[in-house]
């Protein structure tokens, strides 16, 4: 009976550990490493005394069938928060209709403590 319980616990723990997203693996990595993997950000914002925010964006076009061809569009953003030591402290994804030039920096600053992955 103990073996069954231990085996079940091991399976549950391994399932939980493998459910980490790529973004979760970024936390603690250097800014340079993130830029090597994701490329250059479309914008970089100063995050007051807490570091900076790297903004990566892809413009996505969809049609009524959901395929990625000309039709309506939206922006898929990844916000990566870099602390003063040059390491990733958090990240989050977001879909928006506005382009990177219209991002309100004041709304992004200070929310890195609550950053989560939004799909």
List the helices and strands and how they pair.
Blueprint: H1 2-17, H2 22-26, H3 31-38, E1 43-46, E2 52-62, E3 72-82, E4 88-96, H4 105-108
Antiparallel strand pairs: 1-2, 2-3, 3-4
Walk me through this protein's architecture.
By secondary structure, this protein is an alpha+beta fold. It is built from 4 helices and 4 strands. β1 (43-46) and β2 form a beta hairpin. The protein has helices at residues 2-17, 22-26, 31-38, 105-108, and strands at residues 43-46, 52-62, 72-82, 88-96. Strands 1-2-3-4 form a 4-stranded antiparallel beta sheet.
Features:
119 residues, alpha+beta, 4 helices
Helix count, DSSP H or I runs of 4 or more residues? 4
The helix content, as a percent range, equals 25-40%
Number of strands: 4
H-E string = HHHEEEEH
Oligomer, anyone? single chain
Computed structural class: alpha+beta
Span between N and C termini?
Answer: 40 Å
Average pLDDT works out at 75
Quick overview:
With 119 residues, the protein is α+β, with helices and mostly antiparallel strands.
């Amino acid at each position: 009976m103990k073996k069954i319980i231990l085996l079940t616990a091991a399976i549950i723990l391994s399932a939980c550990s493998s459910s980490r997203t790529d973004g979760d693996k970024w936390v603690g990595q250097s800014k340079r490493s993130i830029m090597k993997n994701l490329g250059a950000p479309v914008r970089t914002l100063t995050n007051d005394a807490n570091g900076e925010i790297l903004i990566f964006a892809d413009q996505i076009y969809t049609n009524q069938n959901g395929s990625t061809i000309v039709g309506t569009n939206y922006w898929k953003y990844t916000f990566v928060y870099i602390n003063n030591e040059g390491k990733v402290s958090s990240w989050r994804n977001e879909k928006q209709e506005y382009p990177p030039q219209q991002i309100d920096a004041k709304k992004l600053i200070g929310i890195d403590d609550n950053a989560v992955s939004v799909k």
